[in-house]
Amino acid sequence: MQDDISYSLFAFVAASIEDVTAAALDADILIARGLIVKKLKERYPDIAIIEIPISGVEIVATIQAALLQAGKQPIALITALNILYSVTKESICKAISEAKYSAVIRRKEKEKSMQLDKILTNAYEGIVVIDASGKISILNTVAQNILGISSSEVIGKSAYSVLPRSIFNSVLQENKEYFSELISFNNHQFYVNKVVMKFRNDMVGNIINLKEVSETKQIEFEIRGKLHTRGHLAKYHFIDIIGNSPAILTSIEIAKDYANVTSNVLICGNTGTGKELFAQSIHNTSRRRNGPFVAVNCAALSKSLLESELFGYVEGAFTGAIKTGKKDY
Predict the structure, then answer these.
(1) Domains and CATH numbers, the chain
(2) How far apart are CA 23 and CA 303, in angstroms?
C-alpha cells in the first residue's frame, strides 16, 4: 500500500488507565503493552489499539537481567499480559509499522463512509437498505420524509415491523428485483426499485429506492424543456417589430389574431421583409410559447425533399423511408 500520509507520533507515560490523557484518546491509533491494553479495549472499544509484541530477544534479555540479580538463586519468569523487563527497538518499530498500516486503512474507511453519507444525504430519492436478517441498516432523509418515520427509531429493527406490510409485503418477501413498481402510500404514488445484494451467490441484503411519481414527471418536464429550448429559442416579440405604416400595423394585428389559434400559419413576403420576426413573435404570443422554436432553412431543401421530410411518405418507398417524417423537424 502506498504510504502517502503524514504521521505524528506522541509518547505518553501511563502506569494505569487513569493516566491516559484526553490527547492520547483523541489519536487515530494507540500503541501500548501489558495490562493497560486490556483495560483500554474494555473502556474504549471504538479506539484502535496496537499491542507491542514480545520478541524472543526480550525474553532472553529479561532472563539474563534476572540471573544477574539473583546469582545462583532459582528465578521464576512471571508476566502480566506481555509485560517484560525490557522492550526492544524492533518490537516498537513493528508496532509503529502496524499502526501506520492500520491508520491508512481506517482513513480510507472513513473517507468511504463520508462519501456514502453525502450520497445518501443529497440523493433525490428515498433509500432504504435492509440487511440479510431483514433489519433496516440505512434510511436516508428522503425515505424518512416519505414514510414519516425517523431513522433513529427504526435502524436495527425488522423492516417487516416498520414498513407498511400492505404495501411493501410482496417487495420484501420475494427475493427478486423490482424496477419501477408502482405503489400508493399516504395519497401519493411512488416508483419502487429493489436491488438484491449478493456476495458469492449469497443474499446479504436489499436496497429499496422510492421516488414520487409527481416529482419524476416534474423533473422530466424541466429536462425536456431545457433540452428543447437549447438552441431553439424564439427571442423576438411583436414589440421588436419597428414600423408605423398602416401596412405594418395591420400585419401585426393580424399576426396577433393568428397567434391565438393552433392551425398552421403561412407567412409570405420578399427577402428582408421580416418574416422571421413575425414567426418568432407569433410563437412567443401563442400557447406554445414555453415550447421550442425550431427554424428550418427551407431554401436549402428541394421542394420534393422538403415535402417528404416534413410530412412523411409511404413506408418502404425507398431505403430508410418512414411514414412519420422527421420528428426533429
Answers:
(1) 17-119 (no CATH), 124-212 (3.30.450.20), 219-311 (3.40.50.300)
(2) 85
